[in-house]
Amino acid sequence: MSNDLSSKPYQVGYALTPEKEKTFILPSLLSHASQNGVSLLKIDPSKPLIQQGPFDCILHKLYDSDWKQNLEDFASQNPNIPIIDSPDSIEILHSRISMLETVSKLKINNTGVPNQITINEVTDWENLEINFPSIAKPLDADGSETSHKMHLVFEKDGLKNIPLPFVLQEFVNHGGVIFKVYVAGKYSRCVKRKSLPDISEEKLMISRGALPFSQISNLTAAGGGAEGCEFEKMEIPPENLVKKLVEGLKEELRLNLFNFDVIRDVKSRDDYLVIDINYFPGYAKMLDFESVITEFLLDVCSKR
Ligand SMILES: Nc1ncnc2c1ncn2[C@@H]1O[C@H](COP(=O)(O)OP(=O)(O)OP(=O)(O)O)[C@@H](O)[C@H]1O
Ligand SMILES: O=P(O)(O)O[C@H]1[C@H](O)[C@H](O)[C@H](OP(=O)(O)O)[C@@H](OP(=O)(O)O)[C@@H]1O
Ligand SMILES: [Mg+2]
Ligand SMILES: [Mg+2]
């Protein structure tokens, strides 16, 4: 689908950090979008949105309070201009507890989330109802540098130097491959990505404390995934299961732009666990992301 090229192109304003702009607003996206009737225009978040534009849609991934207020002022005067996405919906993904509660609510067969507990203070360690190894993840998943600083924890002792508050999520062996499902409006695609390797019983016997790591999925996206046929052989989850998760999460989250990470439990190969959900992820890592994003924006603007 493309906009009728004889008419004026849709004007889509974007408000992103400089880093996000660099990795998302690529020349290939700008040219594909403009050839299909969509102009992507940079917003100056420090200036009132109502004095910029005019826009047919606003795309954003900024979280500071000034920007939220700017967006609110604009929305109150332009209730018919789609904002992708609503800050209130995005907020659900900024806590690793509320993010995964949405999955548990879906009650889809063979899907769930790993057992996890919140650690707000040191006294919470007394009667830990969790198995090790576990992954300690910052409770806030707000896109900050620290929000990706994780620790693989082998025993209770390994918790002592981990910055509070954090979520302690049981580590599930999943064959070293993670499935990332990207969603952009009515479009979705499941891709494979290299993940943390399984932890053997032997490794567990000799491992102590905790190991730090961060943003493994970004590293391996560039590296093209795991070596060897194991990665190639790993089948992606059944299409109907992915579809149910996509539709369920879209309804539950009321978001257009997100992805979620799914792993398959090696102990029960039909069971899938969602371990992470991300707002406005790295779409440019997806093949032909230019047409996916352009189609999405055309769909949003034409529905106005
Ligand atoms: N419960 C788990 N069991 C096994 N491995 C896990 C688990 N949770 C996370 N991992 C591993 O740690 C990696 C990072 O975890 P997660 O995706 O939650 O962090 P993140 O910083 O939000 O990552 P992203 O860059 O995808 O936002 C995953 O890609 C996976 O390799
Ligand atoms: O490999 P993906 O596309 O999942 O990597 C994403 C990651 O999942 C998060 O969405 C990151 O955003 P934050 O959680 O806000 O840090 C993305 O970083 P970004 O700089 O592209 O927004 C990763 O690309
Ligand atoms: Mg992830
Ligand atoms: Mg994440």
Describe the structure in your own words:
This protein is α/β, with parallel strands linked by helices. The protein folds into 2 domains: 10-84, 3-Layer(aba) Sandwich (Rossmann fold), CATH 3.40.50.11370; 92-285, D-amino Acid Aminotransferase, Chain A, domain 1 (2-Layer Sandwich), CATH 3.30.470.20. 31% of the residues lie in helices and 25% in strands. A hairpin with a 7-residue loop joins β13 and β14. α2 packs across α10 and α5 packs across α9 (239-253). The chain starts with 9 loop residues before the first strand and ends with a helix. It binds adenosine-5'-triphosphate (ATP), the ligand O=P(O)(O)O[C@H]1[C@H](O)[C@H](O)[C@H](OP(=O)(O)O)[C@@H](OP(=O)(O)O)[C@@H]1O and magnesium ion (2 copies). Residues 114, 135, 137, 141, 148, 150, 169, 171-172, 174, 178, 195-196, 215-218, 261, 263, 275-276, 278 line the site of adenosine-5'-triphosphate (ATP).
Separation, N- and C-terminal Cα atoms = 16 Å
State the CATH architecture of the largest domain.
Answer: 2-Layer Sandwich
Question: How many extended strands?
Answer: 14
The main β sheet shows up as: 5 strands, mixed
Q: How many structural domains are formed by the residues?
A: 2
SSE inventory with pairings:
Blueprint: E1 10-15, H1 18-24, H2 27-35, E2 38-42, E3 57-60, H3 65-77, E4 83-84, H4 87-92, H5 98-106, E5 111-112, E6 116-119, E7 134-138, E8 149-153, E9 166-170, E10 177-184, E11 187-194, H6 201-206, E12 210-214, H7 216-223, H8 228-233, H9 239-253, E13 257-264, E14 272-279, H10 289-302
Helix pairs in contact: 2-10, 5-9
Residues 217, 261, 276 line the site of one magnesium ion.
Subunit structure: Monomer.
Binding site for Mg(2+) 2: 276, 278
Domain Inositol-tetrakisphosphate 1-kinase N-terminal: 12-90
